[in-house]
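Problem 12. The chain below contains 219 residues. Write out its predicted structure in token notation.
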Amino acid sequence: MYVKLIMKRDLVTIRPDTHFYEARWIIQEKGIRHLPVVDESRRILGMVTNFDIRSAAPADSSMSLQDLAFTLGKLKAASFMTPVEKLVTVTPDTIIEKAVQLMHERKVSCLPVLDNGQELVGLVTETDILATFVDVMGLKEKGTRLTVALEDEPGKLFGVLEVIKRYDVNVASIYSPTFTVEGKRMAVIRIKTQESEGIVKDLEKIGYKVESVQKWPSM
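Solution.
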């Protein structure tokens, strides 16, 4: 799956000469946290965030409220935005796993999506990533969540799937963390049925340990 399949395309943007109060109003009115700054060709120049808005005020605490308001009113986006050189970006063809890795390692909550060099074509945010996680994990599918302990050896998962197949049940999702518990991998398998008793009994009969069974949504 690629970034272009989950990114936001209908973006609110501003120009570098947008004044401080207009940028703040847009962020508050639209309920957004990331406001790209682009030129007339939609090439990205920077990003205005809630943090940038809060940090724009001068450090001089002795200023009167009137002087502060006057000073902020003269500020333009180019002077308080996070410049493009400090942004972490991706392309439409970046795989989602790489986007997630970048957000995790660089501790950012938004990735501008650039095409043809610097042209802004979309944004990927934490919200988009979480929505994708919900979909990939099959959390919107009614069924049963099985956690099965597996020896960390090739072919062990196949045996579980063979049992599920005999019951003519589809699998909504499968994932397995890289860590082990008492030397075994935990496989979390979501199946599209809430009648899982026969599957569980057959798994245990051939030596698999089913750690938990949970109907989904929770009953």
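Discussion. The CA atoms of residues 156 and 213 lie 19 Å apart. Students who got a different answer should revisit the alignment rule from Section 12.3.
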